[in-house]
Amino acid sequence: MSTTAAAVVDQPLVIGGREFQSRLMVGTGKYADNDAMVRAIDASGAEIVTVAVRRVDLDRTKEEGILFHLDPKKYFLLANTAGCYTAEEAIRYARLAREAGFNEFIKLEVIGDKETLLPDVEGLLESARTLVQEGFHVMAYTNEDLITALKLEDAGCAAIMPLASPIGSGLGLINPYTVRTIKRRLGAPVIVDAGVGTASDACVTMEQGVDGILMNTAIAAARDPVAMAHAMGRAVEAGRLAYLAGRMPRREIAVPSSPTTGMLD
Amino acid sequence: MPDPITVVVNGQEREFGGEMSLTDFLQALDLDPQAVVVELNKEIVRRPALGATTVRNGDQVELVHFVGGG
């Protein structure tokens, strides 16, 4: 991406005491194959890449694992607790992930409902508190509720991750007001996670002032994931720049852009 | 000859030649210790301890690794 001669200067993205270069974070699921995944991730410019923790398939032990395709020196691997429905499960998976992985970060998910994949707030708060105490940098996937976000911050989470809309739904940012409110009230980084569908969604989300976006399906399920990954990289940058530029106010009535004087008789 | 043991591995019952270290256990399954995480009876066994930890009859072992996910 070329840099503009913009007067605005952005602060670096810092989560858990570590600086990251890209505000776009991507998942690694749902790709047709590893080659498609790597090309799309590369095109996105993302640095943080999420992975899940699952049983080894004992009948296919000779297949290359995902780490073969994602260089841990180039990408920051953020393990998640996807598929966990209780605090106990999420804690178990987080500990396994830490043992498998390369850092102390965990994207914490405790799901409350299979159809919507919305978070179970009780389980989320309980596991967040435990994992923070165990030294994890917890990035917590949560709902749009400000109170829950504040509690997660109080628990010591490294980042709060409110959803834009349900995981994999592509519905975009359903409630800009709540995301804006969460960002305004929290000191911890706010990363919107889940539900982004296309580039405009990403742009609008960044315009709310949040620190970053995590998306998976929007890229992986696009007809051309590499093209969409390019679009998303630009959209996140555009939205961030628009936010830093300070948008014009909205008005209910029109205000002409051309002079009203000097008109012919 | 050691007695064969039955171990539940990733939810499946499997037979092995006898009690063995987790290092040998992984080798028997054709797995690279660097690429998997081992949980023995619900407790994670750190990589440096694999050689010194024995898997026994009736043990439950979970072997996990990173996969693609959102």
Task: Draw up the topology in text.
The complex is a heterodimer of chains A (265) and B (70).
Chain A: E1 13-15, E2 18-20, E3 24-27, H1 34-44, E4 48-55, H2 66-69, E5 76-80, H3 87-100, E6 105-108, H4 121-133, E7 137-142, H5 146-154, E8 159-162, H6 176-185, E9 191-193, H7 199-207, E10 212-215, H8 217-220, H9 225-245
Parallel strand pairs in A: 3-4, 3-10, 4-5, 5-6, 6-7, 7-8, 9-10
Antiparallel strand pairs in A: 1-2
Helix pairs in contact in A: 1-9, 3-4, 7-9
Chain B: E1 5-9, E2 12-16, E3 20-21, H1 22-28, E4 37-40, E5 43-45, E6 54-55, E7 60-68
Parallel strand pairs in B: 1-7
Antiparallel strand pairs in B: 1-2, 3-6, 4-5, 4-7
* Main sheet: strand order of chain B: 2-1-7-4-5
CATH topology of chain A: TIM Barrel
Record field, number of beta strands of chain A: 10
- Do you know the CATH topology of chain B? Ubiquitin-like (UB roll)
The succession of helices and strands of chain B, N to C, reads: EEEHEEEE
Main features:
heterodimer, A: 265 residues, alpha/beta, TIM Barrel, eight-stranded parallel beta sheet, two-stranded antiparallel ribbon, 36% helix, 17% strand, B: 70 residues, mainly beta, Ubiquitin-like (UB roll), five-stranded mixed beta sheet, 1 helix, 7 strands
